[in-house]
Amino acid sequence: MLSEIKEIASKLAPRLIEIRRHIHSHPELSGEEYQTSAFVAGVLSSSGLHVKEGVGKTGVIGEILGNGQSDRTLAIRTDMDALPIQERTGLEFASRISGVMHACGHDVHTTVGLGTAMVLSEIAPHLAGKVRFLFQPAEEIAQGANWMVADGAMEGVDGILGVHVFPSIPGGSLGIRYGALTAATDDLEIIIIGESGHGARPHEAIDAIWIAAQVISSIQQAISRTQNPLRPVVLSIGQINGGRAPNVIADTVKMRGTVRSLHPESRGKLPSWIEGIVASVCNGYGAKYEINYRQGVPSVQNDSALTQLLQSAAEEAWGGDRVQILPEPSLGAEDFSVYLDYAPGSMFRLGVGLVEKQTNHPLHHPQFEVDESAIITGVVTMAYAAYKYWVMGNE
Ligand code: NI
User: How many A from CA of 122 to the centre of ligand 1?
Assistant: First the structure.
C-alpha cells in the first residue's frame, strides 16, 4: 500500500503546490478564516468527503467512511490561521493581504491535510474505519481547538494525529517526539499598587516601579532556588507599564507575562507560588497587589503507541536517516493538546528547512520560507500512518 500511496501523492504534487501557494497568498487571521475554510470545504467535497462547515466558528470537518470493518475513528488535525506579520519574502506568491502572513506554516499544514484527504479517499476501501479531518481555526490565539471540541469535533474519536512544520529540520526529513512535545502555557498579569509622590521625596511615597523591579527579580531568583531544575518553568514578563512623569513616583505598575511548564504538578502549584512571592515583596514595602492568572493550553503529551505508529510509517516511507527522534521538547505552545483530553494523539514535526539556501528563517519571521517538497513528505507520512492505524491493534 505504501507504493500506491506514494504514487497517488506524487501525481497530486503539482496541484498541492498550487493549493499551498493559493492559501499562502490569501492568509487570514485567527477566527477570520472564512475564505480559507470555504476553499478547504470545496476541495474536500470535490474529493468525495462528507463535509461539515462552520464547526468551531470557521473550522471544517471532512470525513472518509472507510469500509466499515471497524467502528473506530482516527482524526487528523491541521490548523489554518495566519499571523499579523507583514511578509518580506519577495516570493511571487507572497501574501496579498497587507500585514497578514502565513509565517507559521499553517498554509502547509492545511495543504498536507487536504493532500492526505485526497490520497485516503482514493484508497478508502482499504481503510477499516473512519478518518475525520479537523481543519481548525484560531490556533495562534490558542482558541480554535476549544471551539472545535465544543462543537463536537472529538465525539467518537479514538486517536488523533497532528503535524507542525519545523525549519531547523531539513525539508524531506521529519521529527518524532515521545512524551512532552510542547509546554503548558498560562497568562499572567500582576498589578502593583503603591502611592504616588514627589520624585525628590521617596520616603513619602510607595514606589510601584521599584517594587515591580523587586518582584521581577525575586520571581526569577526564586525559580532557580525553588523549582525542580529537571522540571522546567519559564516565566517571562513581556509587557510593563507604569508612571506618568520622570519626577513623579508611580503609584501603579501593570506587568503581563507568559508562564511555561512541562509537568502538570509543577503547573498546578504556580499560581499560589507566584502570589506568595508578590505578596511577600509588596507586604514588605507597604504596597498592594492584584494577580490575574489565566490557565491557557496544556502541554502536548504524545501518546507512545501513536508516536510509534508515526515513527514506523515515516521510517518505512523514507528510511531511518530521514526520521529524527527529537531528544527535547519545546516550551512553545500548541493547542493540539486540547484534543488530547478526549483521545490519545501524537504530533510530528515536518522538516521544511531550506538548509542549503542560507535563508532558513525561524517560524513567525517575516522572511520565513519553506521547502515545498515537504508537502509530499507530510502527505505520504500522514496517509500511510492512517492506513496502518487499523493494523496496529486498533481494529
Ligand atoms: Ni503554528
Answer: 29
